[in-house]
Amino acid sequence: MAILLRDVVKRYTDRDGTSIAAVDGLTLEVPDGVCLGLLGPNGAGKSTTMRLLTAQSRADGGTINVLGYDIPREAKQARALMGVVPQTDNLDEELTARQNLEVFARLYRVPRAGLRAAVDRALEIAHLSGRADARADKLSGGMRRRLLVARGLVHSPRLVLLDEPTVGLDPQVRADLWGLIAGLRASGVTVLMSTHYIEEAVRLADTCALMSHGKVIATGSPTELIADHAGDRVEEHEGSPERLAEVEGLARRAGLPTRRTGPTVSVLRAERISPSLADSLANGARVVRRAANLEDVFVMLTGETVD
Ligand SMILES: Nc1ncnc2c1ncn2[C@@H]1O[C@H](COP(=O)(O)OP(=O)(O)OP(=O)(O)O)[C@@H](O)[C@H]1O
């Protein structure tokens, strides 16, 4: 097992003295070689979990093991084998792309004889070989993100932690990074990636852990999670508030879960709707049927939405 978290708790005290459990009894396992997507809305506790794994922050309870090392006691050994890609860009502006990587390669004690090759390899993975000698402040936002990933890979880690790797990026840059992460996953490196983008988790993760209010509330492949919690099909109804309430009532009586998004009620497990119930639900109005997705699962389980 690459990562093992058991009943982990991390509390913060607000300015007014109230205590918040940012991580609140979190249990999570990440097997070797798996890309696990930690999916949750803002404030779910994803970044706090990442900081606990790197021992930048200390848990108030529970146990954490990373690559066989007890955290925080053996954090130094664990850190030597893991690559961390932070959410915030903290590149050295005045150094070139290559120099940024060299600094980290030395920090991670990459042997001097192999240092140049390690840096070249990281530049190549991040498609930055052509910009190796450009200063970081002269790189585009997307290139800087790729350089941050390269920096986390320079010592060939067995495990990579990516905290919201594509937050705030435009679609083209996001697609580039997805390619990069998919490549990492294919190479057998264990990846733990936090995200609040459903699509990112679905595309990249072998396993998703859904996180809400500091806990993991469901784990599985996107397909398993959808099948277990939302079924196969979803029927979407629009209409007046009275009409929507009627749809909810009919669905509830038939034992079918529903969720409301603005002016729409979605009836889950729509494959179980009988022809007569279908008529009553539609009541002459247009109904859209679609495949169930991970967002349905998330909203079903938490009442919260993710992007
Ligand atoms: N240093 C801190 N002091 C006080 N409260 C904190 C601190 N760090 C996080 N929190 C609180 O803990 C909770 C979880 O925050 P965290 O940043 O881990 O969530 P997240 O899932 O990573 O969200 P985001 O996607 O916005 O980064 C939030 O309520 C946050 O306000």
Automatic annotation (TrEMBL):
Annotated ABC transporter domain residues: 3-238
GO-annotated molecular function: ATP binding
Entries under Pfam families matching the protein: ABC_tran
Superkingdom, taxonomy of origin: Bacteria
PANTHER family the record matches: LINEARMYCIN RESISTANCE ATP-BINDING PROTEIN LNRL
UniProt cross-references to InterPro entries, sorted A to Z: AAA+_ATPase (IPR003593), ABC_transporter-like_ATP-bd (IPR003439), ABC_transporter-like_CS (IPR017871), P-loop_NTPase (IPR027417)
Swiss-Prot/TrEMBL keywords: ATP-binding, Nucleotide-binding
PROSITE patterns assigned to the protein according to its UniProt record, in alphabetical order: ABC_TRANSPORTER_1, ABC_TRANSPORTER_2
Protein name (record): ABC transporter ATP-binding protein
Keyword Calcium: no
